[in-house]
Write a structure and sequence with these properties.
- The protein folds into two domains: 290 residues, 3-Layer(aba) Sandwich (Aminopeptidase), CATH 3.40.630; 166 residues, 3-Layer(bba) Sandwich (Glucose Oxidase, domain 1).
- The chain is of the alpha/beta class.
- Strands 1, 2, 9, 12, 13, 14, 15, 16, 17 and 18 form a ten-stranded mixed β-sheet that branches.
- Helix 1 packs across helix 3.
- Helix 4 links the parallel strand 6 and strand 7.
- The protein is built from 15 helices and 18 strands.
Length: 502
């Protein structure tokens, strides 16, 4: 019964405050701290209930964005004529009774019971059996190993040492492996109590986007206590795999793996992306697009607190308010650049970049026609005169940005490189899904703070004046990129590391 909810959301959104058409006069006169703060107040209002994916509050936020796009004259980007692109979600758990993991070497066979000896970690789960010979990864899991084409279509087995701290980037490496493999099996040496706790967590219902099942490899953790005989028959020593100093990929001597994971579905839902387009002024270049993006969702409600609503003012009402300010400025007479502008508001970012992943797999315009993505996430806090611009070292967008900064000293906004590379923020917002598809990106963020993912991330803590100067910088940058007859270009090494590895 989602349709009545969505219609009621549209009615509510129409009642929210919106800047008067043409407020401020002139394309940059419309980008004001008062307007940006008003939009943050709307998007981070308690009535949005933290904008979790999925939730009625997220639908209200989407309806508010649709109403703004319509008011500003953006055209729907969907071929069906709507602003909203929806993707399916499922809440489910693994049906242990219908699932089975079996390993064999010659006549030696071991059956690992799902829910007792096997923990589902993540990835797709289609219900059909996956069978094949195992490919072993030994030693440290390096980026080169995780990106190897030898993993494609294989069942990959690696032995992790859970008795010591795991590398901080291990999750990303396993995700890279899973993106190439048919399945990933993690041999576990956890103690029995720790493994039992993990099994309890794995048994809890999961919410995942349906499109992840389209070819995504399952990742499972199997406790080696039930595999002793079959590993010995295949001449595999898990401790030797863990302790190796050299990263190696080797075929096993006859270890065969069969995995069947059956889902039990509990609930179906949908989540909204909102997409609008301003057509460019050039009859040829208007077929290409500069994409601005800022996610709409947050983390919802934290039960058990007096103030339980995580309003997400900075994360990411600030970025979305900035995107709407840009849409308004570019919609002013005479402000449209030669290329078309695409404004993407994905949801599910907090869950795992779901909305942007769906958009880049199912784009509403040809993906090859998107020349660049400028992404905003958490732009309203921290230093008043600087912003992190992730991607400066990756493409010619950097030189364009440097020129814009030099041309507009009045903005007092200095883009700086990523200050926390160990946090791997390049992989943690929606620009990443554009980058891995070959679209040059810049990601603008002021970084995290003590209120990050807390109910205290409230509208009254936003530095709207600072965010407004950044949005003006993006207006000038977007104008340059969208008017330049040359498309932005990747630097060769960045292209190899980011695009070709995917």
């Amino acid at each position: 019964m989602a349709l009545p909810l969505f219609l009621s959301s549209i009615i509510l959104a129409a009642s929210l405050q919106a800047p008067a058409p043409g407020a401020g006069g002139g394309e940059l006169g419309g980008i004001t701290a008062a307007d940006l703060q008003r939009r943050v107040d709307n998007l981070a209002h308690d009535s949005m209930m933290g904008r979790d994916t999925p939730s009625p509050g997220l639908e209200r936020a989407a309806a508010y964005v649709v109403a703004e796009f319509r008011r500003l004259g953006l055209r729907p980007a969907d071929a069906a004529g709507g602003y909203v692109q929806r993707f399916g979600l499922s809440r489910w758990t693994v049906d242990s009774a219908a699932s089975r993991v079996e390993l064999s070497a010659g006549s030696t066979r071991a059956i690992a019971r799902v829910g007792l000896d096997v923990r589902f970690v993540g990835g797709g789960i289609a219900g059909e059996a996956i069978t094949g010979d195992a490919l072993l990864l030994a030693g440290p899991i390096t980026a080169e190993m995780a990106g190897s084409r030898r993993l494609e279509g294989r069942i990959v087995l690696l032995a992790l040492d859970y008795t010591r701290p795991l590398p901080s980037d291990l999750g990303d490496r396993v995700d890279e492996i899973a993106a190439r493999a048919r399945a990933v099996v993690l041999l576990s040496n956890r103690d029995s109590v720790a493994f039992a706790r993990r099994l309890e967590t794995a048994a809890e219902p999961k919410l995942t986007p349906d499109f992840l099942d389209e070819g995504s490899a399952p990742v499972i953790e199997v406790h080696q206590r039930v595999l002793g005989d079959v590993l010995e028959a295949a001449d595999i020593n898990p401790e030797r795999l863990r302790s190796g100093e050299r990263a190696e990929i080797t075929a096993t001597s006859g270890l065969r793996v069969s995995i069947r994971l059956a889902p039990r579905y509990l609930e179906r839902a949908q989540a909204p992306n909102v997409v609008g387009v301003l057509q460019g002024s050039d009859p040829v270049l208007r077929r290409e697009y500069l994409a601005f993006s800022a996610h709409s969702d947050h983390i919802g409600i934290t039960p058990g607190r007096i103030d339980s609503i995580n309003n997400g003012a900075d994360d990411n009402a600030s970025g979305l308010a900035g995107l709407l300010e840009l849409a308004e400025a570019f919609s002013e007479p005479g402000a449209r650049p030669r290329r078309s502008l695409l404004f993407l508001v994905p949801s599910g970012e907090e869950k795992g970049l779901w909305g942007s992943a769906y958009f880049t797999e199912h784009p509403t315009v040809p993906l090859e026609d998107i020349v660049a993505n400028l992404n905003m996430d958490l732009i309203g806090r921290n230093w008043p005169d600087s912003v992190i611009a992730v991607g400066l070292e990756q493409s010619t967008l950097a030189s364009t940005l440097q020129q814009v900064v030099a041309d507009h000293p009045e903005l007092r906004m200095a883009p700086i490189r990523d200050r926390w590379p160990e946090e791997r923020i390049f992989y943690r917002s929606d620009h990443y899904n554009f980058a891995r598809k070959g679209v040059p990106i810049l990601f603008f963020t002021s970084g995290t703070h003590p209120d990050y993912h807390q109910p205290t991330d409230a509208p009254d803590r936003i530095d709207a004046e600072k965010a407004t100067r950044l949005v003006r910088l993006l207006f000038y940058l977007g104008t340059e990129v969208a008017n330049d007859p040359e498309r932005p270009r990747w630097f060769p090494e960045s292209y190899r590391q980011i695009v070709e590895r995917h």
